[in-house]
Amino acid sequence: MRVFFKKTAIDDVNAACGYIRDVLKNRSAAQKLASAIYDTAMLLEDNPYLGAALSGKYPVETDLRFLIVSRQFIFYRVVEDNHIEVTRVLDGRQDYMAILF
């Protein structure tokens, strides 16, 4: 299966890494986080159901699943068993449920 990142997910990663790089002045940590997020998401190519179902954690009707990397939640869905769509990458300290729904 192929993994595709929606623009919102790419923007999320860029924002998180940009904050670490520009505000916290830690370019190395920003690069490590970006690599960790993308490397973890690529694991889904061979293991599409690796992440937990969001509906298993919260009483919501959704096909979203998630993986956690550092403090970042990678939200994705398996689309018709032919590809994976990463929809958002949000910090776990955010009210990510309000952002998603």
Question: How would you characterize the overall build of this protein?
Answer:
The chain has a single domain (2-100), classed as 2-Layer Sandwich (YaeB-like fold). It contains four helices and five strands. It has helices at residues 7-23, 27-42, 54-57, 96-100, and strands spanning 2-5, 52-53, 65-69, 72-79, 83-91. The longest helix has 17 residues, at 7-23. The model has no long low-confidence stretch (mean pLDDT 96).
Short description:
The protein has helices at residues 7-23, 27-42, 54-57, 96-100; strands at residues 2-5, 52-53, 65-69, 72-79, 83-91. The protein is an alpha+beta fold and 101 residues long.
CATH fold call: YaeB-like fold
Question: What oligomeric assembly is this protein in?
Answer: single chain
Class per helix and strand makeup: alpha+beta
Alpha plus pi helix count: 4
Termini separation (Å)? 27 Å
User: What would CATH call the architecture?
Assistant: 2-Layer Sandwich
Please tell me the overall pLDDT: 96
Strand order of the largest sheet: 1-5-4-3-2
Secondary structure tally: strands: 5
- The CATH H-level homologous superfamily: RelE-like
Bin the helical content.
40-55%
Biggest sheet architecture: 5 strands, mixed
- The low-pLDDT segments are none
Please tell me how large the radius of gyration is: 13 Å
SSE run: EHHEHEEEH
Which keywords apply here?
101 residues, alpha+beta, YaeB-like fold, 4 helices
Helix-strand layout with pairing:
Elements: E1 2-5, H1 7-23, H2 27-42, E2 52-53, H3 54-57, E3 65-69, E4 72-79, E5 83-91, H4 96-100
Parallel strand pairs: 1-5
Antiparallel strand pairs: 2-3, 3-4, 4-5
Helix pairs in contact: 1-2
